[in-house]
Design brief:
Number of strands: 0
Radius of gyration: 28 Å
Number of domains: 3
Largest sheet: none
Structural class: mainly alpha
Shape: elongated
Number of helices: 17
Strand content: under 5%
Helix content: over 70%
Order of helices and strands: HHHHHHHHHHHHHHHHH
Distance between the termini: 97 Å
């Protein structure tokens, strides 16, 4: 029987070591993967699953781990013989599927532990090539490290979903995004950057789901759904944008004016939205009756302060970097218009007397500062033209 089984026939293994028979990786992997997946699904979907002995689930988990380890071993050995053997790495990716599906057999705590352990193992394999001595000894191909990183990221996503509640899920996802973007900036790794962007997008979507525009604009809805958790999520969004900016500058993504302009506009919009959610959430978290109103007043002031900073930056850089200065001036004027529209259309009809007066006073002072600086800048330009 052993001679008829291509997965264990020593003659085929010996021939595979000297011949480029990539399909043998698939033949060895797919049947075991399918059988284990069926077993995992049966243990997870069994109506009497709670009565199923725990030892059975652990045996299935052990089988999934053995399959993944066997796939990794075959991929490493295949990569040493033929560095371009991508099929072996893809077969290893398929071999990790039962291990990634295994958490559904367990309760919440067990599922998180399994997912976190699997993520640690897979991401550890992906990091090995970055370690000089260990990487030289293991000789893990780059495509195998990519497959392992993607599988590890999926396991990490499972762990985040399992350990976090709906309120704290954006924070967990954004923390992971910051970690991957930090690694991507340090190592200039595109795969890590892609994973970080993906986690950041998921975190931003879950944050927007909790703090959408309708919730921020409606006081009863805001008081029912916003609070300290959304404030922490907004801080996580701002921190992720800062790390993403550092990463983009580190890899030279901001060197071109066009790309820097587009990214800066989108980042600015996201930052202003996160600041609004932050101030409103903090105002509601205080528990005071006017917390919602005070949060919106502070948001308007922050918007105007950001617009003032952009305008002053543009005026200061107008002579040295005119292209970038024009972008800053345009963005500053746009945010100024939006802040004034919010002040007159929303704040004027919603805020109380004292809070409204404070918002009008601060915004008026900032407008006065910008107007004075504008008059001085263009006055200097006129005098320079006349003297020339």
């Amino acid at each position: 029987m052993a001679d008829m089984n291509p997965a264990i026939d020593p003659r085929l293994i010996a021939r595979h070591s000297v011949r480029d028979w990539s399909w043998l990786h698939v033949v060895r992997t797919v049947p075991a993967v399918l059988a284990t997946l069926i077993t995992v699904a049966g243990a997870a979907l069994n109506p009497g699953g709670d009565a199923t002995p725990a030892s059975n689930r652990y045996q299935v988990l052990a089988a999934a781990i053995v399959i993944a380890v066997a796939g990794l071993t075959g991929a490493v050995l295949g990569g040493r013989l033929r560095a371009g053997d991508v099929t072996a790495s893809l077969s290893f990716g398929a071999a990790t599927v039962p291990m990634l599906a295994a958490p559904i057999m367990f309760a919440r705590t067990g599922s998180v532990l399994v997912s976190a352990t699997v993520a640690t193992m897979l991401l550890g394999v992906a990091v090995v090539p970055w370690l000089p001595k260990l990487g030289a000894a293991a000789r893990i191909p780059g495509h195998l490290a990519v497959v392992s990183a993607l599988a590890g990221a999926f396991a990490l996503l499972e762990a985040c979903i399992g350990i976090a509640r709906v309120q704290t899920l954006p924070v967990a996802l954004l923390l992971v995004a910051m970690g991957f973007l930090g690694v991507a900036g340090q190592q200039r790794a595109r795969v890590a950057a892609g994973i970080g962007v993906a986690f950041g997008a998921l975190g931003a979507l879950t944050f927007f789901y909790r703090a959408d525009i309708a919730t921020l604009a409606n006081q009863p809805e805001a008081e029912a759904h916003l609070g300290l958790s959304t404030a922490l999520s907004a801080l996580a969004v701002l921190s992720t944008l800062a790390v993403a900016g550092w990463w983009a500058r580190r890899i030279g993504l901001l060197d071109r004016e066009s790309e820097a302009t587009v990214l800066s506009v989108f980042a600015g919009i996201g930052a202003l939205y996160a600041v609004t959610a932050l101030t409103v959430s903090l105002g509601i978290a205080t528990g005071t009756r006017n917390g919602f109103l005070a949060g919106h007043a502070v948001a308007t002031i922050v918007w105007m302060a950001a617009a003032t900073a952009a305008l002053l930056y543009g005026l200061r850089r107008l002579a040295r970097t005119p292209q970038r200065a024009k972008v800053a001036l345009g963005a500053g004027l746009l945010v100024t218009a939006v802040a004034l529209a919010k002040l007159f259309l929303f704040d004027l009809a919603t805020l109380g007397g004292l809070v409204r007066a404070a918002a009008f006073l601060v915004v008026g002072v900032l407008l006065l500062v910008v107007g004075t600086r504008y008059a001085r800048a263009f006055g200097d330009m006129d005098s320079g033209v006349r003297s020339a």
